[in-house]
Amino acid sequence: MGKNNENIYLVDGTSLCYRAFYAIRELSTSKGVPTNAVYGVINMLRKFMNDYAPERMVIVFDLKGPTKRHEKCKEYKIHRKPMPDDLSPQISKIKEVIDGSSIPRYELQGYEADDIIATLAHRAEEKGWNVTIITNDKDALQLVNENIKVLSPNPKEDKMYTPKEVLEKYGVTPDKMIELMALMGDSSDNIKGVTGVGLVTASKLVSEYGELEGIYKNIDKVSSASLKEKLVEGEKDARQARELVILDKEVPLELDIEDTRIGDPDIEELTRLYKELEFEKLLRQIMPQMEEKSELKIVSGEKELKVLSEEVKSTKLTAISLAISAEDQTDGIAFSLKENEVHYVSLGSEFIKDILEDEKIKKIGYDLKRDIIILKNSGIDLKGIEFDVMIADYLLDPSRPKYDLEGIAIRHLGLNMASKAASGSGAQATLDFSGELAQKDSCQKCNAIFKLYKELEPQLKKKHLTELFEKVEMPLVNILADMEYEGVGIDLKTLKRLSSEMEKKLDEATSKIYELAGEEFNINSPKQLQVILFEKLGLSASKKTKTGASTDESVLTKLASSHELPKILLEYRSMSKLKSGYYDSILGLADNKEHKIHAKFNQAVTATGRLSSSEPNLQNIPIKTEMGRKIRKVFIPKEKDMLLLAVDYSQVELRILAHLSGDKKLIDAFKKGEDIHKYTASLIFDEALDKVTDKMRSSAKTVNFGITYGMSSFGLAKDLNIGVGEAQQFIDAYFNRYSGVKKFIDETIESARKKGYVTTLLNRRRYIPEIKGKSEQTRGFAERVAVNTPVQGSAADLIKLAMIGCHDEVLKMGGKMIIQVHDELVFLVPEKDLKRIARKVKEIMENIIELKVPLKVNVEAGPNWMDMEEVEL
């Protein structure tokens, strides 16, 4: 231990960057700038700080250009691969982050990081300090002694080398590592050493004869003739290797070893960097909570309320934020008419109802759909919603994992809104309703909402998204709120019966599985299943995971053809998923009073613009199996003399593809009302329409839909169970017949490369920075996204327009829109008005937008969502 117990840590910065780069392979900003190495370095340094709490540290970097070792050996490092293209531009940002963290950093032209570290270690040791060198380079092990250790970082567990650990691993003491490496060489640096001499042999020679000079003085004593020959032939290389591996402890450093204390981080600089790099999570961690600059006014007196009322009516624009409890209830609302001034009004005030129900007063908010429903439960009909900052941020960048108010405020305002009143994080955090805290929280949010409105509105205009926002997304907020509030009736009796039947089938499947396995085991345990399938039954394992042979669906599907157990396992998993995910879930979600569920329809989730649903997920109800279809049977009208009317677009994505591509054959087929899959089959198989078989049509259908998702020949081969070559022939034949589609795909990908984004029919944007990535796999995925998004995103635009067109019209006719799933809308309608409403909905949906091909819908109705029949109009 050092004399004065002072500790210093010396880090090989270049090595750190490489480890970070390969630890996190894919991460970039919305503009496509790679950031994986920067993020990795930050996390590694933060972990190191937490684990070791260093007070002194220097991070040392290599610089480009020759060093003294290149003068000694022209071949030195000649075979080393150049720095990866995605890593090199990140080095400067990594250095900026290190500097912003006030961690000393050093580099010197003409000298390698290893030599600088050796010099610093030597100077620190002379002062009696304890030195820890952080590197995975074994060159540094020659420096190890009782005062100098080497820490080799590892994702699982760091390895600390003291003289004892060096001896245990390499068979020599640290002072003999130079001799060992002279014999072994270092292929990564193109240091040859003695060809054919590995660690065991080198260690034995060094242990017996000491330094390299001693080995060659005693060359005749080497008993193995072949080893002696290797040593003689490799003497020149060994001596040169020894020169190259010796670390220089006398580098002329300008850095004073005393100036190595870690300072206080520059929060302002790190905030700037993290915003630029889009490290939102890190931003939240380093930014102090937003200071409450807003002037909070609790308004309660009649006189004060009157003044506020007149002010709001005069301004005709206010931000609002409800103080929401865990039970989705509110005690009051914050209003903000200008920056940094907020008024909080208790819910009981008549003022609130008047203002919120006044359509002329425009409201700005966050997640206004939720506000509408909560207020409706309190007897208030919120009108005049103008601007939802969640929806605006979503349109500006639809690929983010979430759009919580805190994150939006950090990204656009540089404000950390972490609420002290909240027991969780995020804008939807559960509030501790203790009066002042709840009020302060909603006021803080209201102030941020007003500022975000001022910030986001111009951005929407700049990116030509204002029309989409105002004409589609904002009107949809009210519609989705109505749908959620209304809910859909559930036949609890049928649901319980089906759930019971499923339970019985699961028990039968479990017994059959145990019988086929010859023992009872945990069916849901992959490890136990691995033992049964691959060890006990001897089935072939086709896919590996970190924990052994895979037992996923694709593996079981392959095995099902050779053994009954995998087949029963697939059935068991399917039933189990349906029971827990839907039957049991719906039972838990249905309210006891009305026997309805109120599924949520989420506007700011999917990158394509599609709506998603949750609690339960209506989008994912499987309808290809009988068990899956039966789930729809429990969705019923709760009112008497009512039916469910389901209207869905027919082959809408293919029609949109025809429109976007302008392909003459595809357009002509739709205009003539051809069976598009049969028509495609006749083209790619070169058969007359009346000669097309069901199998041909099925193959063509797979190709038709696969093309819109950028399906590869490998994917098509898998779906059709054919060879990759044959699948490629299908794709080639498709593009030969539909040359316009091929041109559209190529032009879309090229446009995405130039612009960095693609657009839909209504100018919805999706940014695809990965399309410029270096990885072929990443680029391939990005290209598929670029092709699919204009098609699927335009279909999303279309169904949203249809919802807006149908909602009020159906309402006027006594019906209600209650469900949206993919390209389908479900309505609750009076039986006596079924045909009248169906005709109106059909007319609206088929004429909602003008395309180069006609839009068609299928119209069905019935007593539940499963048992439906076509409505003759």
Q: Into which percentage range does the β-strand content fall? A: 5-15%
Low-confidence stretches: 420-434
Q: Which percent range fits the helix content? A: 40-55%
Shape: globular
Largest sheet: 6 strands, mixed
Q: Strands of the biggest beta sheet: in what spatial order?
A: 3-2-1-4-5-6
Radius of gyration: 34 Å
Structural class: alpha/beta
List descriptors.
873 residues; six-stranded mixed β-sheet; 13% strand
Give a description of the structure.
This protein is an alpha/beta fold. It is built from 34 helices and 26 strands. Helix 4 (88-100) runs antiparallel to helix 12, helix 18 crosses helix 19 and helix 30 (713-720) packs across helix 31. The radius of gyration is 34 Å and the shape is globular. The protein starts with 6 loop residues before the first strand and ends with a strand. Mean pLDDT is 86; it is low at 420-434.
Element layout with pairings:
Blueprint: E1 7-12, H1 13-23, H2 36-52, E2 57-60, H3 68-72, H4 88-100, E3 105-106, H5 113-126, E4 130-134, E5 148-152, E6 159-161, H6 163-170, H7 177-184, H8 199-209, H9 212-217, H10 225-233, H11 235-245, H12 267-277, H13 280-286, E7 295-299, H14 302-315, E8 317-324, E9 330-338, E10 341-346, H15 350-356, E11 362-365, H16 368-377, E12 385-388, H17 389-396, H18 405-413, H19 436-462, H20 466-486, E13 488-490, H21 492-517, H22 526-536, E14 544-545, E15 548-549, H23 553-559, H24 564-589, E16 596-597, E17 600-602, E18 612-614, H25 626-629, E19 635-636, E20 642-649, H26 652-661, H27 664-671, H28 676-684, H29 694-708, H30 713-720, H31 724-737, H32 739-755, E21 757-759, E22 765-767, H33 776-812, E23 816-821, E24 824-830, H34 834-846, E25 857-862, E26 869-870
Parallel strand pairs: 1-2, 1-4, 2-3, 4-5, 7-10, 8-11, 11-12
Antiparallel strand pairs: 5-6, 8-9, 9-10, 13-16, 13-19, 14-15, 17-18, 20-24, 20-25, 21-22, 23-24, 25-26
Helix pairs in contact: 1-2, 2-4, 4-12, 7-8, 7-11, 12-13, 16-20, 17-19, 18-19, 20-33, 21-24, 23-24, 26-32, 26-33, 28-29, 30-31, 31-32, 33-34
